[in-house]
Specification:
The chain is mostly helical. It has 10 helices and 2 strands. A hairpin with a 6-residue loop joins strand 1 and strand 2.
């Protein structure tokens, strides 16, 4: 068996009194939190456990996961497009992407959700047709923009702005020589992006995207103000019906 190099050998350090004190303090804090959580009757744990497996809570949990997956998937695709536009050498294209990212990152998500939910007040009907012809198809925005649709649109557009900056940062991490090598092989812009650039950006993009998924999972609670029956809204409905402080 080859001998390990000195830098690969595990360094053993003796325990000092302050190490034991830190462990004791940490255990005491955790034990105190667990004790007060278990013994405090105001939590009403029997009520909590009795409702954890009810149909409304499970349906709310499922809708929360669906909102997270759909909004993250669509937001990532739109963010990729915005990142490509942001890096364009055409000022109008990069300027539009910059304006989009700045606006949606600079305004609260709750305000955006409420705006899309009430968009029918500004545009009651939208006509989709072919320019310079009489062919048109009016759409009732009030019927189209349901609470669930408004939630998906609002979360997706907001998430796209953040994902665009994450993806753009991943593009910036790729060495300029990789772009030049792809160009020298005669690759088109799409082929270069798909086979050369995106695979090399994954180590930089994936950790930040994981943080965004966690944030999106928590951010879905905001759609409860629109009446969407996600997890928080389902728990609040039980509280409103039973007057018992059920928390999820």
């Amino acid at each position: 068996m080859p001998e390990l190099l000195p830098e690969h050998k595990k360094r053993i350090t003796p325990k000092r009194p302050r190490d034991y004190l830190c462990w004791a303090a940490a255990i005491a804090v955790v034990a105190g939190l667990v004790y007060t959580t278990v013994t405090n009757e105001n939590y009403q744990w029997p009520v909590v456990f009795s409702y954890l497996t009810t149909r409304s809570i499970l349906d709310g949990l499922l809708l929360t996961l669906v909102l997270t997956v759909v909004s993250m998937g669509l937001g990532t695709l739109l963010g990729l497009l915005l990142a490509i536009m942001r890096m364009s050498h055409q000022p109008p294209i990069s300027g539009l992407a910059r304006l989009y990212i700045t606006f949606f990152r600079g305004t609260p998500v709750l305000v955006q959700l409420i705006f899309w939910f009430n968009i029918a007040a500004l545009y009651p009907n939208v006509s989709l047709g072919i320019p310079f012809t009489d062919i048109s198809n009016p759409v009732d925005v009030n019927a189209l923009m349901t609470p669930l649709t408004a939630a998906i649109v609002g979360l997706t557009l907001n998430e796209a702005a953040y994902m665009a900056e994450i993806i753009r940062g991943g593009f910036a991490s790729v060495n300029r020589g990789q772009y030049e090598a792809a160009d020298s092989l005669g690759m088109s812009g799409f082929t270069r992006l798909r086979h050369v650039i995106i695979p090399q950006t994954m180590p930089a993009i994936i950790p930040a995207t994981g943080n965004q998924v966690i944030g999106m999972l928590k951010g879905t609670s905001l759609v409860s103000v629109l009446g969407v029956a996600e997890l928080l809204n389902s728990a609040q409905s039980i509280y409103a019906r039973t007057y018992k402080p059920f928390r999820c």
